[in-house]
Design goal:
By secondary structure, this protein is of the alpha/beta class. The protein contains 10 helices and 8 strands. The chain folds into 2 domains: 106 residues, 3-Layer(aba) Sandwich (Rossmann fold), CATH 3.40.50; 105 residues, 3-Layer(aba) Sandwich (Rossmann fold), CATH 3.40.50. The strands form 2 sheets. It has a 4-stranded parallel beta sheet with strand order 2-1-3-4, sandwiched between helices. Strand 1, helix 1 and strand 2 form a beta-alpha-beta unit. Helix 5 packs across helix 6 and helix 7 packs antiparallel against helix 8. The protein is globular, with a radius of gyration of 16 Å.
C-alpha cells in the first residue's frame, strides 16, 4: 500500500513545488494537500505565533492523522513553534518545512546563505537553524537575505520576475558554501539561482521528500 502523506499549507504558492518534488523523487506516495490560506495574513497581522494560531496549526495535523496519514509535512516556514507543538502532540513523523534542508546545508560547510521572500518567516527560520546547529554541536554561520519583491511577483502569478529577482540577489551570498532557497515557493528559482552561483543550492521540498521517504520506507537517495 502506498504511504499517505498529508501536506499542510498556509499559502497556495507552496503546493506546486512540493508536488513536483514528490513526482520526481517519490511518485508512489499518496499526497493529500490541506490549505488554510488565512494563516499567513493572520500571522502578519498578529506579529507572532499566538496561542490561537498555534492551536490551528496543531488541529490541522490532528486532522491529517485522522484521515490516515503515515507522515505529515508542513510547507510554511513561518510557524516553527506551532509545528513543534504538533510534533509533540502526535506519535507519528511530523516534519518541519526546512529541517531536512538545514541538515544538508550543515554538511556542506561552515558558511550558509538563506535566500528568503517572506519576511515574517526569517526570524523563526534563523532561530530554528541556530538551535539545530547547537544541537548538532557544529559551528556554522548563517547569512539571510530577503527579497520581498519576489514574493509580491509570485502572488501576482509572475514566476519569471520572481525567479529573476532571486537570481539577481543570489550573488550577495556568493561566498557561502551552500545557499538555501528558504521556502517551498522559492524552489521555483532553483535553476536560475544555480546558474549564478558556484556553491551548492538547496531547496526545502527536495530535502523534505528525501527525508520522509527515508523515514517511512527506509530508502535513502
Amino acid at each position: 500500500m502506498n504511504k499517505r502523506i498529508v501536506i499542510i499549507h498556509a499559502t497556495p504558492v507552496a503546493i506546486n513545488p512540493i508536488q513536483k518534488a514528490f513526482r520526481q523523487d517519490w511518485p508512489e506516495a499518496e499526497l493529500v494537500n490541506i490549505l488554510d490560506d488565512s494563516l499567513s495574513p493572520d500571522l502578519e497581522s498578529a506579529g507572532s505565533q499566538t496561542p490561537d494560531i498555534i492551536e490551528r496549526i496543531v488541529a490541522l495535523a490532528r486532522y491529517g492523522r485522522d484521515i490516515g496519514a503515515a507522515g505529515i509535512l508542513y510547507s510554511c516556514s513561518a510557524f516553527s513553534d506551532a509545528i513543534d507543538a504538533a510534533k509533540s502532540s502526535l506519535a507519528m513523523p511530523v516534519l518541519k518545512p526546512n529541517e531536512a534542508m538545514f541538515d544538508e546545508a550543515m554538511e556542506a560547510g561552515s558558511r550558509i546563505g538563506l535566500l528568503a521572500t517572506f519576511g515574517p518567516s526569517v526570524p523563526s527560520m534563523e532561530k530554528e537553524f541556530r538551535d539545530l546547529v547547537e544541537k548538532r554541536g557544529k559551528t556554522v554561520y548563517l547569512e539571510a537575505f530577503l527579497v520581498e519583491a519576489a514574493m509580491t511577483a509570485l502572488r501576482a502569478s509572475d514566476t519569471g520576475t520572481h525567479n529573476r529577482l532571486l537570481a539577481e540577489a543570489a550573488p550577495r551570498l556568493g561566498d557561502c558554501d551552500a545557499v538555501m532557497l528558504a521556502h517551498f515557493s522559492t524552489s521555483r528559482a532553483l535553476d536560475d539561482v544555480s546558474r549564478v552561483l558556484n556553491s551548492k543550492v538547496l531547496t526545502s521540498p527536495n530535502s523534505a521528500v528525501a527525508r520522509l521517504k527515508s523515514v517511512l520506507t527506509g530508502y535513502e537517495r
